[in-house]
Amino acid sequence: MAIKSLKALVESANRLKELRHQKEILYEAYRASAKPTEDEIDTLNAALLDGFRSLGVNNVSLDTGEKYTRMVKRGLEITNEALALGWAIENHTISIDSRLTAQKLKEAQEAPKGFKFIEREEVRVTKPKA
Fold first, then answer.
1. 130 belongs to a structural domain
2. Which of 54, 67, 77, 98 is paired with 127 by a 20 to 30 Å CA distance?
C-alpha cells in the first residue's frame, strides 16, 4: 500500500491509531475475562503438585489419554555477580545484551571490534502531553 500524499499519510496514521486503540481494548477485555480462569488454573496446578508429592506419584493419566506429570526443573540464582561472571567467561556461557550495548554505543561513530551497526525502520507513536 503506497502512500502518495501527505493527506493519505495522516489518514493512515489516524487509522493506525484507531486500530491500536481497538487492539488494546480487546486485549484488556480478554485479560479481565481470563483472570478468574487463570486464577483457577494456578490453584489447580498448586493442588496437583501438592497431591503428587503427598501421594508419592509423579503423574496421572486421564481417560482421554492425556498425562499430567510432575516435573522438577533445576535453575540457578546468581549470588555473587563477579564470581558468576568470571565462571561464565571461562566456560563460554556468557551472552551480550545487545539492547544495552546499543544504548551505550548510541553516540559512537564507529562500532567496536566484534560489532557492527545496523538500522531498521519502524513507526513510533508519541502521545501529546496532557
1. no
2. 98
Using CA of residue 21, residue 24, residue 29, residue 30, what is the dihedral sign?
positive
Question: How sure is the predictor about 22, in pLDDT bands with cuts at 50, 70 and 90?
Answer: very high
Residue 6: which domain range?
1-60
Q: Is residue 66 part of a domain?
A: no
Structural domains in the chain (count): 1
- The answer to whether position 44 is within a domain reads yes
Give the pLDDT of residue 78.
Answer: 93
Query: What is the SS3 string spanning the chain?
Result: CCCCCHHHHHHHHHHHHHHHHHHHHHHHHHHHHHHHHHHHHHHHHHHHHHHHHHHCCCEEECCCCCEEECCCCCCCCCCCHHHHHHHHHHCCCCCCCHHHHHHHCCCCCCCCCCCCCCCCCCCCCCCCCC
Hey, what amino acid is at 121?
Answer: E
State pLDDT tens for residues 61-92.
999 999 999 999 999 899 999 999 999 999 99
